């Protein structure tokens, strides 16, 4: 088995892990909603007692640690490990909503609002936003992992880093800008989909620039 085939097999098992982990996370959310939203999840958000909030923050931190660990054992280079994390995270996030739909028939539509994360502050937004980002993570992560396994080293330039950091900042702002809804029990303001589009475009542009940079260097050196 060549390195590319071996990586593809690891990515498939990573997707299996993501699907199973999504079921675990969805089950926890089912219990939380039965406890705090017995008549159905909706905004405004209800206040969680501090002891339960501490547990929830710890659970979310542990979730990220598990996804990072899955990526670390998937790749052999720094970038292939990061790619594994992207795939694991993306599959987990997408199937989390699929499992919620199966278990409690929620969301009713892709524009239903959800509380996405609590660290370092509450992230809120319509379901279509995190799912769109997760789909991009799976595609870019799989492409990056397979290219790295084939020996095409990923070497992003300053332009790619600027796009990546800028895209991250824009997307985080889109989820955390409405502090009243996230922290003070208010109804959320309309989500700014232009920020979602801008963040995704920046990610895609940054990745394409990195791939082109690698291609240009290959042509210049004459190495295949």
The count of strands amounts to 2
Calculate the terminal CA-CA distance, rounded to whole Å: 21 Å
Structural class by SSE content? mainly alpha
Strands side by side in the biggest sheet: 1-2
Q: Estimate the strand proportion.
A: under 5%
Whole-angstrom Rg: 19 Å
Number of H/I helices: 7
Helical amount: over 70%
Biggest sheet features: 2 strands, antiparallel
What string, H for helix and E for strand, traces the elements in order? HHHEEHHHH
C-alpha geometry: globular
Regions with little confidence, pLDDT below 50 for 5+ residues: 218-224
Mean pLDDT: 93
Report on the architecture of this protein.
Helix 1 crosses helix 3 (78-104), helix 2 (50-72) packs across helix 3 (78-104) and helix 4 packs parallel to helix 7. This protein is mainly alpha-helical. The radius of gyration is 19 Å and the shape is globular. Helix content is 71%, strand content 4%. The longest helix has 34 residues, at 3-36. It has helices spanning 3-36, 50-72, 78-104, 128-149, 158-176, 179-183, 193-221, and strands spanning 113-117, 123-126. The model is unreliable at 218-224 (pLDDT under 50). The protein starts with a helix and ends with a helix. It has a two-stranded antiparallel ribbon. Strand 1 (113-117) and strand 2 (123-126) form a beta hairpin.
């Amino acid at each position: 088995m060549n390195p590319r085939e071996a990586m593809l097999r690891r990515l498939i098992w990573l997707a299996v892990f993501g699907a199973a982990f999504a079921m675990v996370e969805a089950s926890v959310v089912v219990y939380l909603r039965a406890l705090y939203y017995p008549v159905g999840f909706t905004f405004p958000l209800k206040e969680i007692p501090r002891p339960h909030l501490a547990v929830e923050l710890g659970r979310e931190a542990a979730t990220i640690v598990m996804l990072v660990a899955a990526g670390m054992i998937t790749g052999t280079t720094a970038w292939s490990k990061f790619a594994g994390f992207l795939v694991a995270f993306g599959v987990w996030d997408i199937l989390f909503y699929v499992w919620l739909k199966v278990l409690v028939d929620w969301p009713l539509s892709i524009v239903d609002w959800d509380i996405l994360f609590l660290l370092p502050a509450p992230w809120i937004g319509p379901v279509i936003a995190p799912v769109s980002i997760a789909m991009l993570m799976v595609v870019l992560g799989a492409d990056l992992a397979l290219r790295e396994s084939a020996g095409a080293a990923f070497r992003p330039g300053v332009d790619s880093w600027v796009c990546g950091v800028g895209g991250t900042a824009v997307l985080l702002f889109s989820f955390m800008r409405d502090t009243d809804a996230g922290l003070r029990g208010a109804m959320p303001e309309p989500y700014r989909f232009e920020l979602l589009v801008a963040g995704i475009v920046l990610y895609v542009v940054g990745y394409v620039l990195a791939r082109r940079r690698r291609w240009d260097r290959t042509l210049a050196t004459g190495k295949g």
